[in-house]
Write a structure and sequence with these properties.
Oligomer: single chain
Radius of gyration: 19 Å
Structural class: alpha/beta
Strand content: 5-15%
Number of helices: 13
Helix content: 25-40%
Shape: globular
Largest sheet: 7 strands, parallel
Number of strands: 9
Order of helices and strands: EHHHEHEHEHEHEHEHEHHEHH
Distance between the termini: 25 Å
């Protein structure tokens, strides 16, 4: 089944993890055997061939670079200009993948419809089709000022999450608290003028509510799960889920184990030991659908290989192509074919067509 994944850190993997994503994951992992600089070495599940194998023909692909003030001990860059330069290197990688015929940027309705037709109607048997990508910025720290936002938009940027982890220049993110303030409001105004989608993922509660109150454009949540099932500020409360539904948002379900099962201890817990499999994802899906009263606000936003690998994703995923096992699990749980279509691609497509029409 044609599938859309609304959150993949492809350029981060290519540049910071030094992975050649044109290769099968087996080749990537073989080259990383013996490396220990990152906890997920030799445990990757994402590459471009695996996306094609799994019929994941359209993704929301990120740029990401955090600015850290002197008192911020998270990993990141020491000036917004450095962060901007990092995102431009990531953009250069996407451009190189386009030049090689591996990927194609999708940034308007005409390109979207052409790409979907190529994958599902015109050339369904072509196994070498380029992966379509919608460019997103995870954390807006690298936007030096609003002139740079316009430059980014001209380069294809179509969605922004104003914050990532910790305090940000435009909003406060996961594990932080506080409001967005005047700079954040300015960012939201310019995003609205440019029709850039607001990604509410990672906003702390204070900034989340402030963003919804100050932004009248299109809102989604690319990769988020439910606080009532795993109690952490990274997750959405039922009230936040209701607010997003009222705004017509789609919420992408994330496959990071600590967000899926309660009591996860980094470096100690294992997916199999905690019973973390794709069934657990459906538990979070069920919860959102019960609040909504339908299946119109859920999608896949896997975040696979978002600084974690097989050590911290569902144990029944050997590669991202295994997302194709989700329909059978949903069917077993009583979901209809229409419901399955909604999750795997339909809701994201409907959202984009409305946002870009």
């Amino acid at each position: 089944m044609f599938t859309i994944d609304a959150h993949l850190d492809l350029s981060m993997n290519a540049l910071e993890w030094n992975r050649d994503l044109r290769l099968p994951v087996t080749s990537i992992n073989q080259r990383e055997e013996g490396l220990s600089d990152k906890p997920d070495r030799a445990k990757a599940v994402v590459s471009l061939p695996e996306l094609r194998k799994g019929q994941i023909g359209l993704v929301v692909a990120t740029q990401i670079a955090r600015y850290v003030a002197p008192d911020n001990h998270l990993p990141g860059w020491h000036s917004p200009a450095q962060a901007w330069a990092q995102t431009q290197g990531q953009l250069a990688w996407y451009n190189a993948m386009e030049d090689a015929g591996e990927m194609v940027q999708i940034n308007n309705l005409e390109l979207l419809n052409e790409h979907i037709s190529r994958w599902t109607i015109n050339e369904p048997s072509d196994t070498n089709k380029p992966i379509g990508y919608i460019l997103s910025l995870e954390g807006a720290d690298s936007i030096i000022n609003m002139d740079y936002l316009h430059k980014a938009h001209a380069n294809g940027l179509r969605a922004i999450g104003p914050a990532h982890y910790g305090p940000g220049r435009y909003a406060q993110g996961t594990d932080a608290t506080g409001l967005m303030g005047p700079k954040g409001h300015e960012l939201l105004r310019e995003m609205e003028k440019l029709n850039i989608i607001l990604d509410a993922t990672h906003l702390c509660d204070d900034s989340f509510w402030e963003a919804l109150n100050h932004f009248n454009g299109h809102v989604w949540a690319s990769h988020n799960n439910c606080r009532s099932l795993v109690n952490h500020n990274r997750q959405y409360s039922d009230e936040q889920i209701k607010a997003l539904i009222e705004r017509g948002a789609v919420i992408g379900l994330a496959l990071d184990a600590w967000m899926m099962v309660p009591g996860w201890v980094r470096g100690q817990s294992t997916p199999r030991g905690t019973g973390c499999n794709l069934e657990v994802m459906i538990n979070h899906l069920d919860h959102i659908c019960q609040i909504a009263g339908n299946t119109l606000h859920v999608g896949v936003g896997s975040d696979l290989d978002g600084a974690f690998g097989k050590e911290q994703c569902p144990y029944d995923i050997q590669s991202i192509a295994d997302l194709q096992n989700i329909p059978a699990i949903m069917e077993k749980r009583g979901y209809t074919q229409s419901d399955i279509n909604n999750l795997m691609h339909g809701n994201w497509l409907r959202f984009l067509r409305k946002a870009w029409r």
